[in-house]
Amino acid sequence: MYLLKILGSLIIIISCSLIGYIYGNTFSKRVKNLIYLRNCIQLLETEIMYSSSPIPEALENVFKKGNKEISFIFKEIKEHLLSDRSRGIDESFQVICNKYKTHLNFTFEDIEVITSLSKNLGKSDRLHQQKFFKLVITQLEGQQIDAEEKKKKNEKMYKSLGLLSGIALVILLI
Predict the structure, then answer these.
(1) What is the DSSP secondary-structure string of 122-139?
(2) Is residue 90 scored above 90 in pLDDT?
(3) Closest CA to 118 of 95, 101, 138, 141
(4) Contact 114, 37 (CB under 8 A)
(5) Is the pTM here over 0.70, yes or no?
(6) CB of 171 closer than 8 Å to CB of 137
(7) Of 94, 128, 159, 174, which residue is the least packed, with the fewest Cβ within 10 Å?
(8) How far is residue 113's CA from residue 78's CA, in Å, rounded to a whole number?
(9) In sequence order, which residues have a C-beta less than 8 Å from that of residue 49 and are 6 or more positions away?
(10) Measured distance CA(20)–CA(167) in Å, rounded
(11) What's the average model confidence in pLDDT over 85-104?
(12) Could you give the CA distance from residue 24 to residue 154 in angstroms, rounded to a whole number?
């Protein structure tokens, strides 16, 4: 009987700890994905501004050259854009970014920065596009700083909270 109680207690503590660890890890993933996204946006800027690649080709090249944890969305955007020519690039960005928002741990503000880029992509001259790329990269850096602050503040707390709630649950059940 005691062995069963000990085994059940261990299962409760381990499962609560894992839940806390998984939730705490979302803060780290967001920081990492924002860094990868910023790098992909810089690649997109290079492809459009300096290589003069058409937007679908630039999106494909960003997919190939960027980190696959985030660059896959650029391939999805390209496929969404080419599947129906009547859609604009801003609609494709919006649909795909909202589709993967939770998978990439992005907030509403992160999605707004990304979609603001798409609204001006290919609709102005080179100088204005280059300025807008710089603005978006600066905004992503700000989002990254915010994400790092939230990570420092919350990640360890959720991991500890998971363990402690498991222990408290075991104490209440015994």
Answers:
(1) TSS-HHHHHHHHHHHHHH
(2) no
(3) 95
(4) yes
(5) yes
(6) no
(7) 174
(8) 19
(9) 126, 129, 130, 133
(10) 13
(11) 82
(12) 7
Distance CA 162, CA 26 (A): 14
Q: Is the dihedral of CA 134, 115, 105, 84 positive or negative?
A: negative
φ and ψ at residue 58, rounded to 5 degrees: -65, -40
Structure confidence at residue 110 (pLDDT): 87
Only one residue has tokens 């920065």, namely 113
Convert 23-59 into a string of H (helix), E (strand) and C (coil).
HHHHHHHHHHHHHHHHHHHHHHHHHHHHCCCCHHHHH
CA 2 to chain centre: 46
Q: What are the tokens at 77? A: 């955007």
**Placement of tokens 């080419």 in the chain:** 82
Q: How far apart are CA 97 and CA 77, in angstroms?
A: 9
What is the distance between the alpha carbons of residues 116 and 39, in angstroms, rounded to a whole number?
Answer: 17
Answer for the pair 162, 16: CB distance below 8 angstroms, yes or no: yes
CB 43 within 8 A of CB 61: yes
pLDDT of residue 41: 92
